[in-house]
Design brief:
Layout (H helix, E strand, L loop, with lengths): L1 H89 L3 H9 L6 H52 L13 H9 L3 H22 L7 E2 L1 H17 L7 H4 L5 H9 L7 H13 L2 H24 L10 E2 H9 L1 H5 L7 H7 L2 H12 L4
Antiparallel strand pairs: 1-2
Length: about 375
């Protein structure tokens, strides 16, 4: 016992230090072990999240691609057929051409000149209006379907708590969905008269100095078409052309939809407000300009290839170009599967990127 007391007195400090070190070491070990387990659990969670993210990305890519196929195979063909019929009905140049043909040798020079001038205005109006309408309607429908597809995907994933069984849930009211998609007919059913009037006014302004004997080359024709488009797009308030594609905006509804989560606001109105916001964006305006320019260049190029050698390339009198302009109607409004102009627009890198970002970055 004396030995123990002596040992304690002699080595007490060392014993306490050693015990403290052992205790601290054990505590540190427990803390390290706990931290290691937490890190392992966190890594497993992150790996699981990464796996889920990859699944979601794969599903979203497949869903996005299926949406583009729906546009090309179903929605767009219907709209293009409807548009082609309406333009042919509203802008008919046959009566002018018939009067010119039947009145040969009978019309006075002023009457003949007036008919030729009318044919000039109507021909350019119909060509540019067709070009503009086909371009804008194709882009608008693609915006619509991507917005709707994104909403369907996000809403369904939220309801399921995962994104694995999208086809089993349908949250968007069918009436709202159908009403939203059918609103693409607004251009043809409601806006066509005012669109024709305004486009004709733009054509008259650009063509007022051009005579029937003026030589028209490929470059002159391209510039003339783009001038008519530019005058039309720049006339009126900014983005006034959006009102040809969709119903005028309800300002009160827009504020309610964007600033409130009130479920009384229908999904249809929410979709329409989001669509308008996309259409008036700088990004959409940019792809509109690019698409119209590419369409014009491709159309004039095709017109040049269909003329005899030395035609538009070297120049032709405007009077001889007008019949050729009339022939463009069928190729401009051809069904999407045979419409190379729509295919050119669809394959533009800027257009592809825009719709990829639109689908991926839709507000959630």
């Amino acid at each position: 016992m004396d030995f123990v007391r002596g040992f304690w007195r002699k080595h007490r400090r060392k014993v306490l230090v050693t015990a403290g070190c052992l205790g601290s070491g054990y505590l540190l070990y427990k803390l390290y072990n706990s931290h290691t387990r937490r890190l392992a659990d966190l890594e497993r969670e992150l790996a699981h999240e990464r796996e889920n993210d990859e699944i979601i990305k794969t599903q979203m890519k497949a869903h996005f691609e299926s949406i583009q196929m729906i546009v090309d195979s179903t929605t767009l063909p219907h709209a293009m057929q409807f548009l082609s019929i309406r333009i042919s009905e509203e802008i008919d140049v046959s009566h002018v051409m018939d009067r010119l043909n039947q009145g040969k040798g009978m019309l006075s020079p002023p009457e003949k000149l007036q008919l030729w001038d009318e044919l000039k205005i109507l021909s350019f109006t119909r060509m540019v209006l067709s070009l503009w309408s086909v371009t804008m309607l194709s882009l608008y429908i693609r915006v619509q379907v991507n917005i709707l597809g994104r909403h369907l995907y996000v809403d369904t994933a939220r309801a399921l708590g995962s994104s694995h069984l999208l086809e089993e849930v349908d949250l968007i009211d069918r009436d709202d969905e159908q009403k939203f998609l059918s609103s693409a007919d607004f251009l043809v059913t409601n806006a066509m008269p005012s669109l024709i009037s305004d486009m004709q006014g733009s054509a008259e302004e650009v063509l007022k100095g051009k005579q029937l004997k003026d030589v028209i080359t490929t470059r002159v024709l391209q510039e003339t078409v783009m001038q008519i488009v530019d005058v039309f797009m720049s006339t009126g308030s900014p983005h006034h052309w959006v009102d040809y594609l969709m119903m005028p905006q309800d300002t009160k509804l827009s504020r309610t939809t964007s600033d409130s989560s009130d479920e009384a606001v229908s999904k249809f109105h929410q979709l329409m407000v989001e669509t308008r916001e996309v259409l008036i964006s700088t990004e959409f305006t940019n792809i509109v300009e690019i698409s119209l320019k590419c369409f014009t260049d491709a159309l004039v190029e095709e017109m040049e290839t269909q003329t005899e050698a030395g035609g538009l390339a070297t120049g032709k009198p405007l009077a001889k170009v007008l019949p050729q302009i009339e022939k463009t109607m069928n190729v401009i409004t051809a069904e999407p599967s045979k419409n190379r102009f729509l295919q050119i627009i669809r394959d533009l890198p800027e257009v592809k990127l825009f719709f990829t970002l639109l689908y991926a970055n839709m507000p959630q």
